[in-house]
Amino acid sequence: MLNIVTLGDERLKKHSIVVPEFDGEIESLAEQMFETMHVNKGIGLAAVQVGKLIRMFITDIPKDGPRVFINPEVVETSFGQATYEEGCLSIPEVNADVVRPQQVRIQAWNLKGRPFSVDADDMLARVVQHELDHLNGVLFIDRLDPKKRERLVKRYEKVHTG
Fold first, then answer.
1. Quick check: is 131 catalytic?
2. Which CATH number does 10-160 carry?
3. Of the listed 21, 131, 150, 157, which one is catalytic?
């Protein structure tokens, strides 16, 4: 199992780099990420959250199943917005309502290096956008009102750093 990088680690603020090769190392990382995500009861995990600054994330949403997204890009978003309470394995025990597009079209590559696209809505759309934010150095709390973000960070720090 891999260690999850948590709030305060500078890697969470960095842009991840493109995955240049689809090899056994990437497959192994994906397997370890799924194990780590499941043990921690998550439904999405970006490589940066386990300390790897590469453009890759995984999802496993009930009624959708496990997916691997390598070098993903959102190519279209809906005008319709939805608010939903989000949390993050890198910021345990912190949740907040976040507004995001209801639907997105995402293009990515699978573990075999084959391109694919997905029209995502509902929970998959939300998780894809949340994980893609990680690859760009953005946390869900960065999308909140500054005062609310500050309160949540202080609460997190009080619980997790004493």
1. yes
2. 3.90.45.10
3. 131
